[in-house]
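User: Need the bound-state model for zinc ion:
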Amino acid sequence: MQDSEFQHNFHTHTFRCKHAKGDVADYCERAISNGMKTLGISDHSALPDDRWLGGRMNYVDLPEYIAAIDSAKEKYPELRIVKGMECEYIPEQQSWYEDELLGKHEFEYLIGAAHFFLDTNEQWIPTYGGTNSARSLVEFGKYTARMMESGVFDFIAHPDLFGNCYENWDENCTACTRDIMAAAADTGVGLEVNALGIRKQTAKSPDNPFPLYPWLPFWEEASNYDVKVIVNADAHKPEDLQGKTGAAFQIVNDLGLNHMDVEQIGRA
Ligand SMILES: [Zn+2]
Ligand SMILES: [Zn+2]
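Assistant: Bound-state model below.
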């Protein structure tokens, strides 16, 4: 394990999403004291219609979130701070990601994350509890591919989140995974090995039958494709900025996966 592996994190939340602790400056100070070089801030995106408000910032808070990141950039010049958000992908709002977030608000990177996914009837299904059938896995895979093809995301957070409610790996998982891998190979969008998932696995109760994520067969399949991966802490409190990232890098190294060049994220 090399020190450089622990010096970057591109998945960091703030109190604004209502289930994380601390503000941008608290994470910056922790990152600096940990000897880190790069901190990407990526709270759960505000959305213009304020849908799914329970776990994300309110739309009215977006300017203040941006200001908190911009002022941290001035206050902590020794740290490379990168302005991002973790976003659901709502296809009819494509121009909002492009023109408002990446354009007007000058976000430097966006993470795509399917906490919800669209089924074939264009209905939104929650991924927690919702990816528990062959059909829903097909839909989750296709939706994740569609996110990558949108061209607005640098990488996809926890693309193996379907392990939250699918008990045993089978051919449905393999098919879903291959759809995701093919799109990742085509588009060059990265796939995240999420260390928050490892922290959840460590804390999981013995009567929980589900594998959660990272789900190893997913990443074994990744080794058959020309895809890039990224390890992130998915920190919801400052002390988690490097939590279990070593175990996530272990998966990447054991399988010989190709890590993204993090110097390029936010430098478009
Ligand atoms: Zn979160
Ligand atoms: Zn997150």
